[in-house]
Amino acid sequence: MTRSCSALGCTTRDNGRSRERGISFHQFPVDAAQRREWIRAVNRVDPRSRQAWRPGPSAMLCSRHFTEADFERYGMRRKLRRGAVPSLPVTEPEEAISNCRRPLTASLHSF
Ligand SMILES: [Zn+2]
Q: How many domains does the chain have?
């Protein structure tokens, strides 16, 4: 299964191209308070239930929603800092895939 970003309007997928650009993917935190912060930052409504969207077990955000300061570097690798909250909304879809704007939530509903 291809991983893709759960942020509204963000079309980043985990593929060779995103890796080339240094984009990483980060799972929603287990910590309840931090998780709420992420959900609030994503600010997304489930189109079916019209309730606040809840991240599924495989929900991820890409690194485009975080600032450099949110990461700790370990040589070539980087890791989100504890307590990091996404602060950069991505509103512009990437031009190359803008003609394919299916909601990325479809796969989450099958869980
Ligand atoms: Zn994203």
A: 1
Q: What is the pLDDT of residues 14-32, one digit of tens each?
A: 999 998 898 999 999 999 9
Q: How far is the CA of 18 from the centre of ligand 1 (A)?
A: 11
Inside any domain, residue 48: yes
How far is Cα 33 from Cα 108, in angstroms, rounded to an integer? 22
In a domain, 106, yes or no: no
Whole domain around residue 40: which residue ranges?
1-88
pLDDT at 85: 95
Q: How crowded is residue 23: how many other Cβ atoms within 10 Å of its Cβ?
A: 16
**41 within domain boundaries:** yes
Among residues of the chain, what percentage have pLDDT more than 90? 47
Rounded to the nearest whole angstrom, what is the distance from the C-alpha of residue 106 to the centroid of ligand 1?
Answer: 16
**How far is ligand 1, taken at its centre, from the CA of residue 75, in Å?**
23
